[in-house]
Hints:
β2 and β3 (38-40) form a beta hairpin. The model is unreliable at 1-17 (pLDDT under 50). It is built from nine helices and ten strands. The longest helix is centred in the first third of the chain and has 17 residues, at 2-18. The protein is an alpha/beta fold. It folds into two domains: 2-100 and 196-231, D-Maltodextrin-Binding Protein, domain 2; 102-194, D-Maltodextrin-Binding Protein, domain 2, CATH 3.40.190. α2 crosses α8.
Amino acid sequence: MKHIVAGIIAVFATTAVAEPLSLVTEDYPPYAYRENGKLIGSSVEQVELMMKAIGQDHTMEMMPWARALALAEKQPRHCVFTTTHNAERDPHFKWVEPLLWGRTLLVRKSGTAVNPVTLDQARDLTVGATRDDFTADLLKAKNFRKIDLATDFNLNLKKLMLGRIDMMPIAEDYYNKLRREGTEIDRVLILSEQIFSLACNKSVADDEIARMQSALDKLIADGTQARLFRKYGLEIESH
């Protein structure tokens, strides 16, 4: 009888571990975006490889950033990426990192007269940011007075090119990629430096987080992460 009970417990334990993870992200190339109906990007591929390495069933969905972040914080078995790991968010999630790291710049449309030389001079300009993204919080913390919120990065970029905002924040590596592709934007100021991560709901077990972290560590150690950065046109120095 004891053996039967032990077997039943083992089955339930295995089922709990195998329960799928719901992975959510936003449309933010080259980290995550759709091409021919498929989700791809440097972060998407890293996360998929991590899930494969640990044998974790999962779903992956793209949605507006504010919704993605809220789901990961409030719903069990949800994780969101590519998420800035900062002091404000730290206690609300369990973290697997780094999917990438780098600096965030403030950029302008090329040819405009916008040219602050300090953050203090930039505070009275209209700056676009993605709703509930860390950059919106960062701009508020740095006392920017005119923050124009949009649902996603691409909408902010369109508004910048149309002259509806003066500047917008952008990851330095993606800025370099857009410049190489001919997008007419210029670096103005450095806004911050940060690590970008996979952030999981606190219901995700510590041993699962540890296995995901180990899988990511291996991707970094064997050069896979660096290869994916190059594949998607990112110039990120090794740490």
